[in-house]
Amino acid sequence: MYGVTASAPGKLVLAGEYAVLAGAPAIVAAIDRRVTCRVTMAERGDWQFLSRGFEARMACRREAVADATEGAAALVAQALSALGLGARDLPPHLRIEIDSQACYRNGAKLGLGSSAAALVAVAAAFGALGGRSLELAPLIAAHRTLQGGAGSGLDVAAAWHGGVICFRNGRAQPMRLPANLHFAFAHAGWSTPTTSLVARFETWRRRGEPAALRRLAECAERVAVARDDALAHFAVYIDALQNLDDVANVGIFSQPHRAGRALAARHGVLYKPCGAGGGDMGVAIANDARALAAWCAAASTAQLSIIDAAFAAHGARAEPIAA
After folding, report:
1. Are residues 200 and 81 in the same domain?
2. What CATH number is associated with residue 14?
3. Helix (H) or strand (E) holding 239
4. d(CA 122, CA 72)
5. What does residue 160 show for φ and ψ, rounded to 5 degrees?
């Protein structure tokens, strides 16, 4: 075998953001913008790392990878830890290419969980190379280490599992969304550091057990079990999410997201930011495809850019590269 190529999808949170940190379920969709990892054998030299999307190039001795604290080498170190592999279990000369360009637009991260998808893709590649299977819990732990201890793990779970999942307390269950729901995806125009918004949320949360968070968690529970009435439960959930943002001043509903929601109301469509919010992605939801198309056509008036994406049925995948 000459090497391995692997990939894992990005994600969008359809419901449950922030509430998931209080033990509520999150509805998370894997998105068909995939991060890829290609690991190939070399005849000589250190392990060579090349990443695109997040542009970087570096080299590292195989024996030093476990101690790496930044860049692609740190990502590989955490992936190997999650797999229970040591660098010495692997070939001495490798070229490791990580491509997350699909999760960027005009140089800005879209907010699709590219770091989690990159970790899962890298782990899938090295797992195939080293004969190890991917397990969700150690992958979540590895990603938290990379993120300084933050994060629920929902983005890792979506990249690992694929499809649409209900995620709670580190566990993912597949779920089906009602067939009459239609979705469109938009970007507010800039990258938002998830950790900074989550830190604001946690600072507010430490002041007590706020009623706004309890309400958001209740609404997330209802979306998770909704069937034919799912759109109505999404509407109530979005109200609760904006109320939490207004009370806690996290910055979830930036001006483009607020404008997108107002525009959606005029078209009979729902709209919300996804995940951390701020400048990242949002989703429009409707049971009328024509109304959703009309909203998409007008989205630029809300300073939103429609992003071509669809749900990804498959999670992490790896296959050998023949010599």
Report:
1. no
2. 3.30.230.10
3. helix 230-248
4. 10
5. -75, -40
Question: pTM score, two decimals?
Answer: 0.95
**Are the CB atoms for 311 and 30 separated by under 8 Å?**
yes
Sign, Cα dihedral of 159, 161, 163, 169: negative
Encoded tokens for 201? 């949320």
Task: List active site positions.
Answer: 155
- How big is the chain, counted in residues? 323
From the list 285, 272, 279, 282, the residue with the least C-alpha distance to 244 is 272
Distance, CA of 137 to CA of 171 (rounded, Å): 8
Query: Which residues span the domain enclosing 116?
Result: 3-174+311-318
- On whether residue 197 sits in a domain, the answer given is yes
Residue 292 and residue 226 share a domain: yes
Chain center to CA of 63: 31
Residues 107 and 239 in one domain: no
Residues 6 or more apart from 102 whose CB is under 8 A from it?
10, 33, 34, 35, 53
Tell me the per-residue pLDDT of 124-170, one tens digit each, with 9 for 90 and over: 999 999 999 999 999 999 999 998 887 899 999 999 999 999 999 99
pLDDT value at position 176? 93
Question: How many structural domains compose the chain?
Answer: 2
- Distance CA(191)–CA(209), nearest Å, equals 30
DSSP code at position 311: B
Q: What is the pLDDT of residues 45-81, one digit of tens each?
A: 999 999 999 878 999 999 999 999 888 999 999 999 9
**What are the pLDDT digits (tens) for 94-135?**
999 999 999 999 888 999 999 999 999 999 999 999 999 999
